[in-house]
What does this fold into?
Amino acid sequence: MAQAVQQTLADPISVVRLGRNLAAEIRDIDLSKPLDAATFTAVHHAFLENEVLIFRDQDISSADMMAFGRLFGELSVHPFSPTMADNPELIILDNHRDNPPRLTDIFHSDETFRETPPLGTILRSTITPRVGGDTMFASMSAAYEGLDDRTQRFLSGLEGEFDFKPFRTLFGNDEEGRRKLHELEDKYPQLCHPVVRVHPESGRKSIFVNRQFTIGIKGMKPSESGPLLEMLFNLAYQPEVQYRLQWQPNTIAFWDNRIVLHYAIHDYYPQRRRMERVTIKGDKPFGVDAPYDGTMIPKRDIELMEIDTPPVANAAPVRAFKQ
Ligand SMILES: [Fe+2]
It folds into this structure.
């Protein structure tokens, strides 16, 4: 069910939807070469529509990946992950027997403890384990759509409280560790983001809290916010809103950090898994109170995809995921 997106392109790309509610593979593209304006527009549109893009067989350099990322915005530097001295925007995630994976086997959106969390993250696999090491993605716009109307309205006025909680464990309890931690607490104080975020480029609403960084809901007692947050965190665990990526060497995933959560499955240890990552700067999240005057980019309904299914008489139309 490849979708022809740009008949006018000299070398047309294909966009193939992978999941019911998110993810598409972009085919017939070589990211080692600069993209012309029309191809970039097609990729950008596919990114907004599908929330996660997958590119296979991209044996490209780190510089190529960074150049691709810069088409979407300025690259950012992670405040806690070790980065390359000469390329601070590049993170190498190299996990093996002596460096077990940690902190990423939980649904999260990258760096949401920041006032302006990243727009998106680009990850390229260079060494993949023989078994395991998949990444799960969850469309939080589909999770929002699946909620009852009254629940949507209730959530729309709330703000989540965020903290760089898991990274606190990186600092020792000695004087130097405490000093560094205080320094970072000053730099990244706890802050609030709307529970229902409006996407700044597609207008879609999504649930913007995650178990890794959201610690409460503004104005609510922990006895009230705790169970509510648990319910919201668990929305990502519905298979209907998920897409599971099996990596091969030279696979690239580019996800929209503003609308999807991801979870790196830690089932491959002690095998080696090496990835390269860059992150694109984002803007300050806003909720339903702020007027959105951009273009609405709806998700392509599955009915419109070319699926070879015989029609069923009197069948109800397929609707967006709703429980
Ligand atoms: Fe992450």
